[in-house]
Amino acid sequence: MAAYTAQILTGRGHSYGKEGIIPNSTLWLSDTGDRPAWILNNKVWTPSIENMLEDGLLMAAVHCLEDPELVEMVNMYFTNVNKANLYEISSEQRQMLYQKNRQLVWGKLIITVFHNSSILSQVSILENYLMDVEVCLPIYSRNLSGWDGSLEIKGDLN
Question: Given this model, what pLDDT does residue 17 score?
Fold first, then answer.
């Protein structure tokens, strides 16, 4: 089983200043195996490598935000929106879906990106979206190697 390297919490901000999140769904990214996947309950989408984060946002918009126009567009391209493979449609079709998704009014997202996640280099795309968002990036990790028992430390807690 592949490990998870990122998560997207969807929900709404607290009414007093919007600190934190009142979550309604969690998407998980598994991208350490030979086939990456965004997972939401029993729904699995195979993202494009070059737009992996936007594919996760698209999945969240379809299954969590449930925007009717976007859902209709996605249903035109995929026979099963619970198990979609983003490579089954053209790059131009994906761009049309991303553009529509960027126009939606969201609640709040908290995106947690773990060390070595494929989406680490893609978080700047969030500037194009209309949502309250927090991006949590790793500042520290300590891992014991399963191969040689050495301890690897990245970052600093001070």
Answer: 66
Q: Quick one: tokens of 59?
A: 């999945």
- The separation between CA 9 and the C-alpha centre of its own chain, rounded to angstroms, equals 9
Tens of pLDDT, residue by residue over 51-73, are 999 999 999 999 999 999 999 99
pLDDT of 66 reads 94
Q: Which residues, including other chains, have CB under 8 Å from residue 107's CB and lie 6 or more apart?
A: 10, 11, 12, 13, 65, 131, 132
Structure tokens belonging to residue 136: 């949590």
